Amino acid sequence: MWFGLSFVFSVFSQRLAESAEDADLYHEFNASLEFDYYNSMLINKVDEDGNYAELGGEFPLEENEHFNNLLVNTQQSDIQVPTNVYNKDPNILNAIYNSEALNDVFISNFQRDPTLTWQYFGSSTGFFRIYPGIKWTPDSNGVAAFDCRNRNWYIQAATSPKDIIIMVDISGSMKGLKMTIAKHTINTILDTLGENDFVNVIAYTDYVRYVEPCFRGTLVQADLDNREHFKVLVEELHVKGEAKIKPAMKEAFKILNEARANGQGSMCNQAIMLITDGAMEDFESVFEEFNWPERRVRVFTYLIGREMTFAQNTKWIACNNKGYYTHISTLADVQENVMEYLHVLSRPMVINHDHDIIWTEAYMDTVVTQSLLLMTSVAMPVFSKKKETLSHGILLGVVGSDIPLMEVMKLAPRYMLGAHGYAFLITNNGYILAHPDLRPLVSSAGLIVLILIKVKSV
C-alpha cells in the first residue's frame, strides 16, 4: 500500500524535476531579461485609475472545495517572492522564466490524479511557484516573510543528513549588537535542521562551555523539542572574558570524530559552524591533528560585525576545510548568509544526481494552504545538468507536493484489520505519521500539533 503510494508520487515528482532541469539546460542566462509573471502578492490589484499593478494583472480565482474552499486558479500557477528578495533581480527573473515549464506538468499531474492537492517548486534563489495559483496574503505589516528555503521539505530534500556542531564566541568583544546577531545566526542554523540531523551547541571564551551541560561530549537528534530547547538556552548567553578558539575547536572535532567512529549521529555529512567576530590564534595545528588531510569535517565560518580586521583568518579556516566563509554585519544579512551552507552540503548529492524522494513528518500548513488538516509533503531535489557547471554541483531548487494524511489512511486494507484493528504510519525516527487518534490541539499560543494515542484494550 505505502510502496504503491510512494511510487505514484515519485513519478509525479520525477516529471516535475525533469521538466525543471530540462528548462534550465536549454536556457542561456540573460542579464537584461524582461519578463512579466504573476506575482501572488500583486495579482488582481488595481490602482485608483483601475490599472493593474506591475507583475500583477487579472488572475481569475474561484472557490474550490478540494483546496480547502480557498480561491484558486487550477489553470495557472503563480509566484511568491519573499519581501527580502528583489522580485526583478536578473537571477530571479531567469529562474522564474525557466520554471514556467512546470505549469503544464502541474496541470497534467492534477488531471491524472484528482486527489492531488498542492504542487510547488521552491527555487534556490528564493521564489516559490505554487499550483493552483492563489492570492498571497502578507502579514499585518505588509511583509511576505515566508521563504520556501526554510521549509522542512526543502531542507530535507536539498541536503543529506548531517552532524552539526555550532561554536559561538561569547568573549567580551561580542557584546551588544554582535551578540544579538550571533544568537539570531544560531537560531537560523537550528531552523535548517530536521529529525535526520544531529547537533550540539558550544559557547567559548577562555574556556569551553556546553550550552546544555547534559549534552556534554555528544550529539543529540535535531528534533523540534531539542531545537527549541537550544534556542531558549542560547538567549541566556552573556559575554565575558577573552576568546580562545583552539580548545573549543578541539572539543568540536572530538565529538564529531567519536560519533563517526562509534557509528552514531547521522553517519553522513559533518560540519562545524564557527560564529565569531575574529580568530587571532594559531589554529592550524588543530586541523592538522583532527581534520587534515581527509577533511571529513567541513568548517563554515560566520564573521559577525562590521569590523573586517580578522576576515582573512576566518576565511582561511573555511577555505582550508571545505567550508564556506560569510560576513554578517546586520540582522538582515543572517537569513541569506546562513542558507549558503546548504548549497555546499548539497554538492556531492547534486554531482551524483541523487534524486532521492523524502517524506516529511506530519504537520499543519497554516501559512501557505491555510489548512487545518494534518498532511505530509513529498519532495525531490532539482539539479543543473549543464555540462559547464556539472562539476560545481548547482542545486536549482526542490519540487514537492502535499498529501493529506486522510488520503493515505484511505488506502489501508480495512478488511484485513479485523473489528478492533486499525492502521497507522510511523517514520524512521519513531514519530507517528498517521494514526486514528492523532489530534491537533489549540493553545493560547496558536495552533500546535500533539500526538494523542488512546490505550485500547484487546
UniProtKB/TrEMBL annotation:
<comment type="similarity">
    <text>Belongs to the calcium channel subunit alpha-2/delta family.</text>
</comment>
<keyword id="KW-0106">Calcium</keyword>
<keyword id="KW-0812">Transmembrane</keyword>
<dbReference type="GO" id="GO:0005245">
    <property type="term" value="F:voltage-gated calcium channel activity"/>
</dbReference>
<dbReference type="InterPro" id="IPR013608">
    <property type="entry name" value="VWA_N"/>
</dbReference>
<keyword id="KW-0732">Signal</keyword>
<keyword id="KW-0851">Voltage-gated channel</keyword>
<dbReference type="Pfam" id="PF13768">
    <property type="entry name" value="VWA_3"/>
</dbReference>
<protein>
    <submittedName>
        <fullName>Calcium voltage-gated channel auxiliary subunit alpha2delta 4</fullName>
    </submittedName>
</protein>
<keyword id="KW-0325">Glycoprotein</keyword>
<keyword id="KW-0109">Calcium transport</keyword>
<dbReference type="InterPro" id="IPR051173">
    <property type="entry name" value="Ca_channel_alpha-2/delta"/>
</dbReference>
<feature type="domain" description="VWFA">
    <location>
        <begin position="163"/>
        <end position="345"/>
    </location>
</feature>
<keyword id="KW-1133">Transmembrane helix</keyword>
<keyword id="KW-0472">Membrane</keyword>
<keyword id="KW-0406">Ion transport</keyword>
<dbReference type="Pfam" id="PF08399">
    <property type="entry name" value="VWA_N"/>
</dbReference>
<keyword id="KW-0107">Calcium channel</keyword>
<keyword id="KW-0407">Ion channel</keyword>
<dbReference type="GO" id="GO:0005891">
    <property type="term" value="C:voltage-gated calcium channel complex"/>
</dbReference>
<dbReference type="InterPro" id="IPR002035">
    <property type="entry name" value="VWF_A"/>
</dbReference>
<dbReference type="InterPro" id="IPR036465">
    <property type="entry name" value="vWFA_dom_sf"/>
</dbReference>
<keyword id="KW-0813">Transport</keyword>
<feature type="signal peptide">
    <location>
        <begin position="1"/>
        <end position="19"/>
    </location>
</feature>
